[in-house]
Amino acid sequence: MASRLNPYISFDGDARQALEFYKEVLGGTLALNTFGESGMADSPEANQIMHGMLETPSGFTLMAADTPPGMKYTPGGNFSVSLSGDDDAELRGYWEKLSAGGTVAVPLEKQMWGDVFGMCTDRFGIPWMVNITETQA
């Protein structure tokens, strides 16, 4: 297997809902493992996600988990998940779903560098950037 780089996002008890939402947005196959399945069946966190992975038909991989017991949850630092490419319809579809119920910092529109770009924070507090490359005629 080749090496890959992908985001791994921490949540505060709502990783399952977030990953199911991202599956609705991006499609793909979602695998979820709970703390209960990993030897913590009697803990209050038994149904929370110890590890989740979404692999999409477009080749995206997104991993996430709920913060483990005993660790402090720290909401995202200075990061964004970036989606980019030249498939206008696909990327606009992702944008519409990700920004719904969230906040838009930069509307998805043509920018001075020629691409269509937008920034939003989804309803789970995760920042996203979408860049649609202008196809050359």
Set out the fold topology:
Elements (H helix, E strand, L loop, with lengths): L7 E4 L3 H12 L2 E6 L14 E7 L5 E6 L14 E5 L2 H12 L3 E8 L5 E6 L5 E6 L5
Parallel strand pairs: 1-4, 5-8
Antiparallel strand pairs: 2-3, 3-4, 6-7, 7-8
Helix pairs in contact: 1-2
Question: Which characteristics define this entry?
Answer:
2 helices, VOC family protein, alpha/beta, Glyas_Fos-R_dOase_dom, 35% strand, PhnB-like, 137 residues, Glyas_Bleomycin-R_OHBP_Dase, single chain, 2 domains, Signal recognition particle alu RNA binding heterodimer, srp9/1, 4-stranded mixed β-sheet
Question: What is shown here, in short?
Answer:
The protein has helices at residues 15-26, 88-99; strands spanning 8-11, 29-34, 49-55, 61-66, 81-85, 103-110, 116-121, 127-132.
Strand order, main sheet: write it out. Answer: 1-4-3-2
Sheet/helix structural class: alpha/beta
Q: What is the domain total for the residues?
A: 2
- Give the CATH architecture of the largest domain: 2-Layer Sandwich
Identify the CATH class of the largest domain: Alpha Beta
E-strand count: 8
Beta-strand level of the residues, as a percent range? 35-45%
- Low-confidence stretches are none
Report the biggest beta sheet as strand number plus sense, adding barrel if it closes: 4 strands, mixed
How many helical elements? Answer: 2
Return the CATH topology of the largest domain.
Signal recognition particle alu RNA binding heterodimer, srp9/1
Assembly type: single chain
**Proportion in helices:** 10-25%
Q: Globular, elongated, flat, extended or rod-shaped: what is the shape? A: elongated
